Amino acid sequence: MAAGWDWEGDESLLRFHSPSEWDAAYECGRVRRMGSAVIGLAFNCTLTEASPRIVKAMRLPDMAEKGFAFTAAGVAARVNRELTPELYAALRAEGHRGFAETAVDDTLTFVPFRQLPPWFKWRTVASKVLDKLETWRLNITYAAEDAHKALRRRRS
Length: 156
Prior knowledge:
By secondary structure, the chain is an all-alpha fold.
């Protein structure tokens, strides 16, 4: 186990860079702070080293640590401009909601469109269509409010 890492303090774990020490802590059943440590792995290790650990952390029973694992997936997308097939599959399984929402958004933002798997490409298109529909709805709402105000001013 890592003697140099403060497993009770989050700050040092963001500099965590040892996949073997993360594996040892995981095998010992240490659940506290594993999600924080996996964010450190996403920042400091290669994607191939960090990816299997991020996926394992996504299955942790502690909801807060599970949330940090999804944050790590988003960090991996930002830092590497790509994800592994396992990470894409884990994010797709979770869907574009809950813990995975921000990680999926980071993936859609930072990974080039041509490198995305089909589900993520579909999410990009669906997101843009929904944004456009919301824009039209707001424009119509604002126009109706302005017309209502103008009519009220005219009547007074």
